Amino acid sequence: MPVFFRSKAALFALAAVFIVCSLLVLDVRTLIPPDEGRYAEMAREMLLTGDWITTRLNGIKYFEKPPLHTWMSAVAFTLFGLGDWQARLWNGVCGIGGVFLVAYTGRRVFGERAGLYAALVLGSTLFWAAASQFNSLDLPVAASMALILCALLLAQRDDATAVERRNWMLLCWAGMALSVLTKGLIGVVLPGGVLAIYMLVSGDRAILRRLHLFSGLALLLLIAVPWFLLVGARNPEQPHFFFIHEHWDRFFLKTHHREGPWYYFLVLMLPATIPWLPLLPVALVSARKRVTGRFQPTQMLLVWTVFILFFFSYSSSKLPGYMLPVFPAMALLTGVYLARAPRSMLLLVAGLLAVVGLVGLGCVRIIPHLNTALLLAGFGAALLCGLAAWFAEARGQRVAAVLAVAVGGWLLTQLLMASHEQFGRVKAGRDAALAIRGELRADTPVYSVGTYEQSMTFYMGHTVIPVNYVGELEFGLLQEPGRGIASLDEFYARWRATAAQGQPQYAIIREDLYAEARRQGLPMRERARGSEVVVVSSP
C-alpha cells in the first residue's frame, strides 16, 4: 500500500470527506412519494402526538413495519427540526456506518488492504450509495444486517480471544434485534438460514458452541420484544396483521402485487453494482476455496450472498431494495479479491466506468425530465475517473486506481439522483402543498379525493381525510372507519354544508375526479396543481 495511505491522517481525512459529502447530499432532493413521503410523515406524526408505540400514517393506524426507522427519524426531527435532510438522516447514518463496519471488519479479518478496498467498493456501489440518500427502510435494514454479519465474522475469527468472541457475538445478537425492529422476522430468519447452510458447506459444526446462544437470545428478546408486547396490548389487531399478513402472506402469496420472475434480482444486479460489476462473479467464485483455520469467513460471505438472493427470489413479493443486505458481503469479497486481482481485472472495471460515462454523455439529450447539466456532470465525472483509474492501474498504482473508480461511482450516483429533482418536486406535489400550508390550522378539514399523496401531507404539515380511497390505508380505515369518507356523494354533501357555513376547507382531488366535481357544481376554487392532482378550496 502506498505510503500516503499508510498514514492515519490520510485515512482520517478520506473518511471525513466521505462523511461530510454523504451528509451534504441528503438535502438536495424533495422527498419522493411513496416511500420517502410516507416515512417522513409517520415520523412527523409520532413527534406531534408523542405516541411512540402505535405507529400511524395520516393519523390512521399503520402496522406494516416495526417502529425503529420512525423512531430514529422522529429523533432527528426533535434535534434538528422538520425537513428533507432530517427525514433522510437515519438512512445517511446507516449508509456511512455500513461502510465503516465493512472497513473495520475487512481490516481485522482479511487484512488492511482488503478492508480499505471493501469500504471503497461499498461506499461507491450505485445501489448502496443511492439508498443511503433515500428515505426508506431498505438501507437501515441492510445496515442492521451488516452489523450482524460483521460482528459474526469478528467474533468467529480464529485469533479472537474469549472476551472478544463474547462481546462481538452479543453485538451480533443485538444487531438481529435491531433488524427485527426495523423490518420484522427476517432479522432472525436470514441469519439463521445463512448459519445452517454455512455449517453444511464448511463442515464447521463447532460454530454452534461459539454463538453464546443463551445470553445472546436473552439480549435479542430484551431489545426486540417490549415494543411488540406494548403495541399488541394497545392494539389487539396488530399481531395478526403484522405476523400473518405482512410476513406469511407477503412471502408466499401474491396479495401485495409485487411479484416478479425468479431472475428479478439477478438482472437488477447488473446496474445496481456499477462500477464494480466485472469483479463480482470472480470474487464470488474465489470465495469457494477453503482457507487455513477452523472458521471459513469467505465461505460465510458467499453463503450470505447466495442464500439471501435465493430467499427473496423465491418470495412472491419482490422490490429492488430487498437485495441490499447482500451488498456488504459482496463488498468484502470484492475487497479480498482486489487485494490480489490481476491488473487486467481492474483495467476492466475502469474501462466499464469510462464507457458508462461516454455512453451516458451521448444519451443525455434524449433522457426526459432530468436536469441536463447534472447529467452531463455525472457522466463526465464517470468518464474522467474511469480514465484516471485506467492510467493509475497501468502504472501499478492499485490504491489510486481503486480510489478513482470509487470517486467516479459515487459522483455518478449522486449527480444522477440530484438530476431528478425538477421532476421529483412536481411528483411530490411540494409546491402545491406549500401553496396552502400557511392557511391551514389544526382543525381545518383537508380532503384527499380518490388518492393519497404521500409527500404532500408532510409538506402541508397536515393530515388529510381520504375520500373514495383506501390503498395502503385499508387496514387502518377498517379499524377506524370514521377517519375516512367512503363515497363521493358523502364528500359532496359535506363539502357543500361546510361551504354554506363559510368555513375554510381544502381538497386534493385526482384530476379526473376534479372534472366530475365541477360537473356536479361543487363550490370550489382552484389553488394549485400537482402531479395528476388539483388543490382546491372553498370559494
Q: Can you count the beta strands?
A: 7
Q: Output the strand order for the largest sheet.
A: 4-3-5-7-6
Mean pLDDT: 94
Query: How far apart lie the N and C ends?
Result: 71 Å
What would you call the structural class? mainly alpha
Proportion of beta-strand residues: under 5%
Oligomer: single chain
Number of domain modules: 3
Shape verdict: globular
Cα-based radius of gyration, to the nearest Å:
25 Å
Mind describing the biggest β-sheet?
5 strands, mixed
In terms of topology, how is this protein built?
Layout: H1 3-6, H2 8-24, H3 35-49, E1 56-57, E2 60-61, H4 68-80, H5 84-110, H6 112-124, H7 126-131, H8 138-156, H9 162-183, H10 186-202, H11 213-234, H12 238-252, H13 264-272, H14 280-286, H15 297-314, H16 327-338, H17 343-363, H18 372-394, H19 398-418, H20 421-428, H21 430-437, E3 446-449, H22 454-460, E4 465-467, H23 474-479, H24 488-500, E5 506-510, H25 511-519, E6 525-529, E7 533-537
Parallel strand pairs: 3-4, 3-5
Antiparallel strand pairs: 1-2, 5-7, 6-7
Helix pairs in contact: 2-5, 3-4, 3-22, 4-5, 5-6, 5-8, 5-16, 6-16, 6-19, 8-9, 9-10, 9-11, 10-15, 14-16, 15-16, 17-18, 17-19, 18-19, 21-22
Q: Please, could you describe this protein's structure?
A:
A five-stranded mixed sheet has the order 4-3-5-7-6. Strands 1-2 form a two-stranded antiparallel ribbon. The protein has helices at 3-6, 8-24, 35-49, 68-80, 84-110, 112-124, 126-131, 138-156, 162-183, 186-202, 213-234, 238-252, 264-272, 280-286, 297-314, 327-338, 343-363, 372-394, 398-418, 421-428, 430-437, 454-460, 474-479, 488-500, 511-519, and strands at 56-57, 60-61, 446-449, 465-467, 506-510, 525-529, 533-537. The protein is built from 25 helices and seven strands. The chain has three domains: 63-340, no CATH class; 342-425; 429-537. The protein starts with a helix and ends with a strand.
